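Z., the sequence and structure:
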Amino acid sequence: MPNEETIKVGIGFATGRKTFRKVLKTNILSWREGGVAQNENISLNLFVAYDLKYANTKVTDYTNIPQRLLKDFDGTYFLGKTTMSSEIRNLVSTGALSPEEAQLFFRGGYAGQRNMVLYWAMKKQMDYLLFLDDDEYPMAVTNTRDWAVWSGQHVLRSHLRYMLDTGANITNGYHCGYISPIPSIEFNNQLTKEDFRVFIEAISNDIINWESLEALMRQGGVTYAEPSILTGRGYEEIPLVNQCRFISGSNLCINLKDSTRVHPFYNPPGARGEDTFLSTLLGDSKALRIPCYTFHDGFAAYDQLMDGVLPIRLRPVCTDMNFVIERFRRACVGWVRYKPLLLYLTQRDTYESQIEDMRLQLAATLPKITSYLRCEDFMDISRELDCYHQNVKLHAMQFQKTIETWGKLVSWLESERKSPFMQ
């Protein structure tokens, strides 16, 4: 049993894939190999918010974990619809939240799932919460030779080390592998390089930009780890750009000790960007980029990595595969759905002009993209922009309400801890 000096660490997953258990097993074995699991001063606790509808899964796809793996955890919490409905009823009945506040904060989607994990970790008085994704593995790949060179990564140990050494509010590692959904394009008269640049600039943000994507496309859509980062021991402060410290939602550790520096997730309905909107709240936070990688298997093509099969070369992402085109389309829709709110929050003085520029850029390039990729659904992107532009003030109000609701939840949790009935 953990003693009073024990560091309580939450491991959080927002998941909907059957591969979750395999990813969890790989991480647990990594923690054992790195000595974290055996450390009596570290209490590991698992928080899993799962969505059965995402990939038509069942509860046991998440909960049926062998005891030989679960024994490394002091607490395991599976947060499905039934559990959260019960918790929401309790929050409403005690007056902690109104039904509308609870519905907004814990609603479906990635932000709602991450908020479930965040809330539960605070409720169980974790010191730190590490978010991991169900399509990322604790390893890195470089192309320093004519073939792929692989290395294991001590993700959890790295985050704990830098948290304890620096007192950071946020630590965020790096990602390699298939991070970007943008495929390699062979440009021609039907779709020129300039056409594609204009399209990417229309939907891009401070993280996704043409310069980085052009270099990535030359590598076949594969992001390789930087050897200097892999072998380094230093960290860097995540810079403030347009009022944001941009972080990713996984390989992400949050210091829960100072509740005033813990912020909630939000995304517009049907959009992504929950990590981006968290980034807008980190201006006063100490947020660090630390030298540890995870391999992102964005196309679910390399789960054999978790069985020890390391490919010599990584396949390029090409447009001759329908699932690649569909993933690219869905990513574009997701980006264009949250870009209006991001611009509205961070660059309001030029918001209207930037939206108009986006409209013109999409009008000029979407027909060419649609024809080149032979996918008429790309034309829906313009309508998505108009819809989310029209609702941007509503989404901004929801975001602010989410922040206020989180503040109420934190205050309620702190009052519950001080209650004599909780002693």
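The radius of gyration is 22 Å. Residues 7 and 337 are 39 Å apart (CA to CA).

Let me know what you think.
H.
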